[in-house]
Amino acid sequence: MDEPVVMQKAQNEIGITALTLHAGQQPSDAASPGDSGTPLLTVPDLLMDGTPSRLLPPGAAQAVAEEGDVVVAGVVRAFRAWVHEGPPIALGPQLYALRVDRAMPDAHFLAGCLRAPANGRQAGTHASSSSRVDVRRLQVLQLPLHEQAAYADTFRRLTDFERLLKRAGDLGKDLVNDVGDRLAAGGLATARNS
Q: Which has the closest alpha carbon to 151: 108, 118, 103?
């Protein structure tokens, strides 16, 4: 169900709606193996590696994130917000796409503000990790459009840095696992005898 979400200050000052909210839904069916369809992203997918784990038949998706939309995970344990880059994806329950009016807030600025950890905590409905985040209660820094660009660029760089840190962490885990396997197979003794 599409529902207009208004950044209050933007509405008051210039009188237009800047965002449209598309709420993900539980799909009724999945595509058969080998069929084409729309990839479905769910909260469990986000908790794994962020890759959609199944396809929906063409036309079955109720909420689809398009390139440039800001996607928000509305559950505390997986809370995050990002600008979707890539082909359209269907959204499962507790995932939301914010379609940004291209003349209004920069999508990277919006995603950067929304993903602040304090934002998720204050918009959470309960204190447990399974609690939901009310996306309507998330707060966005109110700045004129011309000032958002510097923030958007910094948020983009911060996201890139986070990706690099994750990649470095993944490589470090792989290295530790490989060295552990080598040691468990007697690799230390082999190195000493050489």
A: 108
Evaluate whether 60 touches 28 at the Cβ level (below 8 Å): yes
DSSP string, 83-152: E--SS-EEE-TTEEEEEEPTTSS-HHHHHHHHT-HHHHHHHBSSSSTT-BB-GGG-------HHHHHHHH
pLDDT above 70 coverage of the chain, percent: 80
Helix (H, G, I), strand (E, B) or coil at 40: strand
Pairing relationship of beta strands 38-41 and 19-23 according to DSSP bridges: unpaired
Cα–Cα distance for residue pair 3/22, rounded to 1 Å:
7
End-to-end CA distance of the chain: 68
Alpha carbon distance 191, 193 (integer Å):
6
Residue 6's pLDDT is 36
Q: Please compute the mean of the pLDDT values over residues 184-193 and round it to a whole number.
A: 74
How far apart CA 168 and CA 165 sit, in angstroms, is: 5
Instruction: Dump pLDDT digits (tens) for 41-70.
Output: 888 888 887 888 888 887 788 888 889 899
Please say if the pLDDT value at position 9 is more than 60.
no
Q: Which residue has the tokens 């950067």?
A: 112
59 burial (CB, 10 Å; 0-12 / 13-18 / 19+) is exposed
Return the C-alpha torsion angle 171, 173, 177, 178, nearest 10: 20
